[in-house]
Amino acid sequence: MSFFKRLFKVTESEAHAIVDKIEDPIKMSEQGIRDLKKDLNSAMTSLAEVKAIAIRTRRDADNKKKLAADYERKAMLLLQKMQSGEIDAADAERLATDALGQKESNASESMRLSTEAENHEKMANQLQANVNKIKSSITTYENDLVTLKARAKTASATKKINKQLTSMDSSSTIAMLEKMKSRVEEDESLAIAYGDMASADKSVDDEINAALASGSTAAPSQSLLELKQKMGIS
Q1: Helix segments in the chain, DSSP class H
Q2: How far is CA 6 from the centre of its chain?
């Protein structure tokens, strides 16, 4: 019993292998294109998200840069007011120092955000290249699929015709034609025979009546003319 089980397993595995080999390439290509389109949608979503982050980070960096410039401008105004005597020197220098601290902090944050924005922009460019590659691949594969379908139809029709031609037995066809020819010749011979039999069944009276009805008689034979001359009949 175990031998038959092993034999069944081997046969089953071979059957699966055959099925795998004859799997429809058109369906496989269509599934591959669908998978690529899913990858494209995912890549497009990621690209949009990364671009949004890059834009927001770049905007934040620019805002920090503007704040740094604004704090520097305020520090300069404080010093100018100090010079003009509008603000106490100690207060002006303290506030100017604080403003410069804010300027440095915002400038540093601006640089950090700029670097981060650059990284996001590089990632966005890479994703854009991948998106373009997937789009190009989809276009190529769709065009190839159209060609593959046309070739598959042609191959199927050609295979069907060739199979029909292969299944045709020329010897049996010739034998069938010869048999038909023999039957036709046999029918022709029978037709002639029945005609002769019909002619033989006519009586002498029938022939005489037929001759009188037609108004003419057949030419007398040579022996009949000689007999008439011998008897003196003109």
Answers
A1: 2-21, 25-84, 89-167, 170-200, 204-214, 222-231
A2: 41
Task: Say how far apart CA 92 and CA 79 lie, in whole Å.
Answer: 6
Distance CA 234, CA 215 (A): 21
CB atoms within 10 A of CB 119: 14
Using CA atoms, how far apart are residues 68 and 110, in angstroms rounded to an integer? 8
Does the structural domain 2-168 have CATH classification 1.10.150? no
Cα separation, 113 vs 185, whole angstroms: 105
Q: DSSP assignment, residue 22?
A: T
Q: pTM for the whole thing? A: 0.53
Q: How far is 74 from 178, CA to CA, in rounded Å?
A: 117
**Of the candidates 142, 132, 67, which has an alpha carbon nearest to the alpha carbon of residue 102?**
67
Task: Quick: pLDDT tens for 133-151.
Answer: 999 989 988 898 888 888 8
Handedness of CA 89, 90, 91, 92 (dihedral sign): positive
